[in-house]
Write a structure and sequence with these properties.
The protein is mainly alpha-helical. 65% of the residues lie in helices and 0% in strands. Helix 1 packs antiparallel against helix 3.
Length: 55
Amino acid sequence: MRLLLLLPFIGLLWVPFYNHRLPELFGFPFFYWYQLAWVPLTALLTFVAWKAEKK
């Protein structure tokens, strides 16, 4: 379960993957909303890894 904590690093450190303007979401370019989407996703992944380690 600790490997879940690597997903945000992999998803955000490879900048050429999300360095685009399109598609837009509510007027925000993909570059911005992709990074913002990782904030709650990272919190969720951290919670899941914490619960799994707690058991």
